[in-house]
Amino acid sequence: MKKTLVLKVNPRKPEKKKIRVAAEIIKNGGLVAFPTETVYGLGADALNPKAVLALFKAKKRPLDNPPIVHISDVKEVYRLVEEVPPKAEKLMENFWPGPLTLIFRRSKIVPDVTVAGLDTIAIRMPKHNVALALIRESGCPIAAPSANLAGRPSPTTAQHVLEDLEGRIDAVLDAGPTKIGVESTVLDLAADPPQVLRPGGIPLEKLRKFLGEVEFHPIAIADKEVSVEKVRSPGVRHKHYAPNAEVIVVEGEVSGIVEKVKELVKYYEEKSVKVGVLATDETAGCYRADVVKSLGSRKNLKVVAKNLFKLLREFDKEGVDVIVAEGIPLKGLGVAVMNRLRKASGYKIVKANA
């Protein structure tokens, strides 16, 4: 088992020496976890097939699940893709750096393994000084899915990375907790109108203001399993974001949700099952379960998104067997949160009546 080097870095002014150490690892085909504004990513040289294969292996990630390629300069897009449509140029100008991933036709220099054999590539420019410094110093685009074992809740701190990947990767750049807490929005401009394949840090409403008509791909807002032939985006086909405990999501009006959650807690407690409730500030006081945690206020979806993965991991540490999670409204960042919760539950969703 290799030793994973932990390098604590200043999120505002990353120390050059530490960034150089991490960049050398990337240049030599190694794996480095690093913070972005969304979650921690696990980085490898996107143009080095062996390094990307090692990345899949370290994460136990299925080879048909393409990672996002991260860049530090818009100019890098032009060598990685066949063409850049005018709409994409406008989006890059307005939303990069930031939590928006765009799908392009890939160029010949991109190895097959980096794009899971697809003819498309997913690219973004992260809005985090440490991530940008690492990409620049490495001198290559960096393929980086989330820095966790496949299927687990995404990591929002370096400690989460180490819980899953210590001894499996070369280094972690620790710059404290991430800001957004859910992954980037993935937008496919080849569809007409453009489609959000994965809801994330940029809400649909913002994209509509800018592009006009934009819609969700059915899989982005699915409340049941949808079969997918080819995956153009990460986080689509396989079970994702799941803690060890079974997750059940209760959706509906708040009053109905509270009653249904209480009912489920009682049902599981009678079976001597340790139950956790993932609630919100407005409702947490209503529950008597083994463990009750609040995502934050329903009025502040930024806080809810930031807390989601952290709390799912905390439930595991508390040893609960079942997590009964409240649904939140499908608007703004709430869509990204519900997408993650539904997937974490394997679409075990209970509809509550008010």
Descriptive account of the structure:
Helix content is 31%, strand content 19%. The protein has helices spanning 16-27, 49-59, 77-80, 86-95, 129-138, 158-165, 204-211, 254-270, 301-318, 334-344, and strands at residues 5-8, 32-35, 40-45, 69-70, 100-105, 120-124, 142-143, 171-174, 185-188, 195-198, 215-216, 246-251, 275-279, 291-294, 322-326, 349-351. It has an eleven-stranded mixed β-sheet with strand order 1-8-2-3-7-4-6-5-9-10-11, sandwiched between helices. A hairpin with a 6-residue loop joins strand 9 and strand 10 (195-198). It is globular. The N and C termini lie far apart (53 Å). Helix 1 packs across helix 5. It has 354 residues and is an alpha/beta fold.
Q: Which H/E pattern describes the elements?
A: EHEEHEHHEEHEHEEEHEEHEEHEHE
Characterize the biggest β-sheet. Answer: 11 strands, mixed
Structural class assignment: alpha/beta
- Unreliable parts: none
Distance N to C terminus:
53 Å
Quick rundown:
This protein is of the alpha/beta class and 354 residues long.
Entry keywords:
31% helix, eleven-stranded mixed sheet, alpha/beta, 16 strands, 354 residues
Break the fold down into its secondary structure elements and pairings:
Elements: E1 5-8, H1 16-27, E2 32-35, E3 40-45, H2 49-59, E4 69-70, H3 77-80, H4 86-95, E5 100-105, E6 120-124, H5 129-138, E7 142-143, H6 158-165, E8 171-174, E9 185-188, E10 195-198, H7 204-211, E11 215-216, E12 246-251, H8 254-270, E13 275-279, E14 291-294, H9 301-318, E15 322-326, H10 334-344, E16 349-351
Parallel strand pairs: 1-8, 2-8, 4-6, 5-9, 10-11, 12-15, 12-16, 13-14, 13-15
Antiparallel strand pairs: 2-3, 3-7, 4-7, 5-6, 9-10
